[in-house]
Amino acid sequence: MDNLTKINLDNYKPLRDVVFENLRNAILEGNLKSGERLMEVQLAEQLGVSRTPIREAIRKLELEGLVVMLPRKGAYVSNMSFKDLIDVLEIRATLEGLAASLAAERRSDDDIVELERLSKEFETCVREVDVEGVLKKDVEFHEKIFSMANNKRLYKLITSLWEQVHRFRVTYVSNYEASLSLVEEHNRILKAIKTGDSELAKKYATEHIELAEQFFMENTANN
User: Fold this and answer.
1) Same structural domain for residues 167 and 67?
2) Pairing verdict, β 74-77 and 37-38
3) Which of 38, 123, 155, 200 is the right S-S partner for 192, CB 3.0 to 4.6 Å?
4) What is the distance of C-alpha 44 from the center of its chain?
C-alpha cells in the first residue's frame, strides 16, 4: 500500500471518480496485492483525500469483483485463484464469440478502418517487444470489437471480466511466442469481421480465448 501517491486535486474529473480509477489501477497493476487489506484511513492519507471517496471507491470495486468484503474483517483485494481464472476465460470465450459475431453483422467501413489500424499498431508493439504497448493495443483492439457489437450490456459484462484477469494477461503477453500468435489470431478475427462472416468471426474469437486458457493451463497451474 506504500506505492500509492497523492492525487492531483486539480483533475477535471469528480474526485470520487479519480479515487476509484487510482485504486482500480493500483490493483490491476499489482501495487495493491491480492489478499491485501484496504484500510480506509491509510488509503485516504496516502491519496490525500477524505475517507468518503475511498469508501465509495471500495464499494464500486467490490461490484467489479476486484475487492471482497469479509464480515467483521473489512475490505480485501480479491485473491483470484487459478480456477477463478479458468472460469472467467470460459465465460469470456462465449461472450466474445457473440460480440465478434454481432460486430461482423453491424460493422461500418469506418469501424473496419479503425480495427485495421489497431491491429497494425498491436503487431508493431509485439515486434518491438513493447509489453506495455501490447497490453494497451490488445485492449483497444478488443474494445473496438465490443463497441461494434452495439450492445451496451454485453460490452459492460465483457469489460468487467477483462479487468478481473488483467494481472494474468501481463504474464501472457510478456511471452514473445504467445504474443506473436496473438497477432495471427487478431488478423483472423479482423478478416472474418471485415467480410461480414459472423459465424467465422464467432469461431475465431472463441478460439482466441480458448488458446489463452490453454496457455494458462500449461504455464500457470503447476506454478
Assistant:
1) no
2) antiparallel
3) 200
4) 26
Measured CA angle at 91 (ends 140, 37), to 5 deg:
80
CA distances from 183 to 54, 101, 141, 186 (A): 39, 19, 11, 5
Measured CA to CA, the distance from residue 212 to residue 121 in angstroms comes to: 21
φ, ψ of residue 14 in degrees (nearest 5): -60, 145
The three cell numbers of residue 169 are 494477461
Same domain? For 141 and 174 the reply is yes
Count the residues in the chain. Answer: 223
User: What is the value of pTM for the model shown?
Assistant: 0.73
Q: How confident is the model at residue 1 (pLDDT cuts 50, 70, 90)?
A: low
Tell me: do 215 and 160 sit in the same domain: yes
Residue that terminates a domain, selected from 77, 97, 114: 77
